[in-house]
Amino acid sequence: MTLALPPAPHGGARTGRHLVDAGLWPDVARLPHTSALHTALARRIVERAFDRLPLRVRTAGAGTRIPRQPDGTQDGLPTLTLYDPDAFYRRIGAGGLIGFGESYMAGEWDSDDLVGLLTVLARHVDELVPPALRRLRSLWVRRRPDADLNTVDGARRNIHRHYDLSNDLFATFLDPTLTYSSAVFTALPAGPEELPAAQHRKIDRLLDLAGTGADTSLLEIGTGWGELAIRAARRGARVRTVTLSREQRDLALGRIAEAGVADRVTVDLCDYRRVEGRYDAVVSVEMIEAVGAAYWPAYFGTLHRLLAPGGRAVLQAITMPHERMLHTARTHTWISKYVFPGGLIPSPEAIAREAGAAGLGIVHDTGYGHHYAETLRLWRERFLQQSAEVTALGFDRAFLRMWELYLAYSEAGFRARYLDVRQIVLAGRDGAPDTNGPGA
């Protein structure tokens, strides 16, 4: 299931660009200025890539390109349908993958299997551009805006742009626990009814790794909507949880009170760098991705500073391969422009290096990226089912297609093993190593 495109205007291409609000989405509503040479070069590069990839490309009025498969089969290939190929290549020529995403938001292309298509692209991401052009990458990619840096003020703005969109929006696709991070399932594939228990299983694993019990003093960096704090408090822990999202804090306070643990949980609007005190354990779930590479030393230094002797810091972190991270760190991407400004997914090597520089060592590391792919599938399917409710909240068609692409793009990253998610325990240098080692 995908979001259907609107009817074409009389005599026009079957896209939704004419319906895009230029005030909200200026770079989607209008085609970019770029040279005919850049457009032609983009077309040549992309068409050559399409010829090598296991996918079909259908162009309005021009038939379907079907690649030659080594085994001679053509079954099960995802199809990319170009409704406005000139606009598609023009956007890619001007903005690379940002243009690719904006073209989808405008309805200039679609797919019968969006996740399958994006998984193919993710698996072959390093083959899409010829080696000679990859060496010139710095000449044509866009740099990240300085305004997106996660200074104390910048981090507040960046968090606001994503997490303060609307609590009701997130409720349309998350399960009743309102947990916005990877679940851990007992078996795959899973049904939507299994998601709440899988989220609690994930939280309980993190709390177990942190040694959370009666009277544990626990700091959570990144409150979400309060589910981890509630479960920690029910174990008898004394919890302080910090967030930069006013929307999340307001709802978390209500959920914590409703759960009857308000006497054991404090929720503060506070930047992690300004937290004081010492804690038996610090837990931070998929928050490091919002820190930014320039502030990783501050983040890990803060973890070390806040841990009481013998304490542990437990992270759940999305990761990507190191070389890919280095490329992404220098590039303004579609995700950083529209979904997570200022964000950067770290590599396992970067986490180990930055933690070590701060005086922390990794004593446990377990990965389970296939569970995140399943979590994202369930979120995406529910989001598409609830599209009328999302529209009723005031979000327009360009937003719906943006969010669908974000969820599908993320799912594809995990299905292609381009991305992973890990539960990592950090301790001071005198911490005893975990003998279990990495899991699967």
The count of domains is: 2
Fraction in helix: 40-55%
CATH level 1 class label of the largest domain:
Alpha Beta
Rounded average pLDDT: 91
CATH topology of the largest domain, what is it called?
A: Rossmann fold
State the shape: globular
CATH architecture of the largest domain: 3-Layer(aba) Sandwich
Total number of strands: 11
Features:
alpha/beta, 19 helices, Rossmann fold, seven-stranded mixed beta sheet, 440 residues, globular, disordered C terminus
Description:
Helix 13 (296-306) links the parallel strand 8 and strand 9 (307-319). The two termini are 30 Å apart. This protein is 43% helix and 15% strand. Helix 2 packs across helix 3 (85-95), helix 5 packs across helix 19 (397-415) and helix 10 (195-209) packs across helix 11. The protein is built from 19 helices and 11 strands. The chain is globular and about 70 Å long. The strands form 2 sheets. Strands 7-6-5-8-9-11-10 form a 7-stranded mixed beta sheet, with helices on both faces. Strands 2-1-3-4 form a 4-stranded mixed beta sheet, with no helix packed on it. It folds into 2 domains: 17-141, no CATH class; 148-428, Vaccinia Virus protein VP39 (Rossmann fold, 3-Layer(aba) Sandwich). The chain has helices spanning 26-29, 36-52, 85-95, 97-105, 114-123, 131-134, 137-140, 152-163, 167-173, 195-209, 227-234, 246-258, 296-306, 322-329, 334-338, 348-357, 369-385, 387-392, 397-415, and strands at 56-59, 63-65, 79-82, 109-111, 217-221, 238-243, 265-269, 279-285, 307-319, 360-367, 420-428. It is α/β, with parallel strands linked by helices and 440 residues long.
